[in-house]
Write a structure and sequence with these properties.
This protein has 6 helices and 3 strands; from the N terminus they run βααββαααα. Strand 2 and strand 3 form a beta hairpin. The chain is mainly alpha-helical.
């Protein structure tokens, strides 16, 4: 007899909630048997849960993961179809990630440009005299006082 698992055992092993596992079951990714109200998961369910979590980390939707499982379950030839589909999905995901990296690079450049403009504007504001300093006489560093410039006869 093959090893079976409870929902709690799988949740603990894969560090997910039991609610997540029940959701994957609702999405037809897992097919446990029942003993009364208790779900009993087989080794195949354990592998499918592991593949589901891996697929999610790679950015696949649950519908895409289900499609891959369905191809595998279809027939033994499903393996070839599954591999072709997987390669196609990988290419799509890589292209999407490459576009995201380009978008991120553009946003970084725009932010750097905006930062430079803001810093320049602050410098210009700090260099301009304020209204209060325009109306007061600026101290001079002239060593000769103004009174000595006048001549008496």
């Amino acid at each position: 007899m093959s090893k079976t698992y409870t929902i709690s055992e799988l949740a603990s092993e894969f560090d997910v909630t039991t609610r997540s596992i029940r959701f994957y079951e609702d999405q037809e990714l897992l097919h446990p048997t029942r003993r009364g109200q208790t779900r009993i998961y087989c080794s195949k369910d354990r592998v499918r849960l592991k593949l589901t979590l891996r697929g999610k980390r790679l950015g696949f939707s649950l519908a895409e993961i289900r499609e891959l499982f369905e191809l595998w379950d279809e027939t033994r030839s499903g393996s070839e179809k599954q591999l072709h589909l997987m390669l196609s999905k990988i290419s799509e995901r890589k292209a999407a990630l490459e576009q995201q990296m380009k978008d991120i690079t553009m946003v970084q450049l725009e932010l750097e440009s905006a930062e430079i403009r803001c810093r320049q504007a602050l410098e210009e504001l700090n260099e301009k005299p304020t209204a209060a300093t325009k109306h007061t006489a600026a101290p001079t560093n002239d060593p000769i006082p103004d009174s000595s410039l006048t001549t008496t006869r």
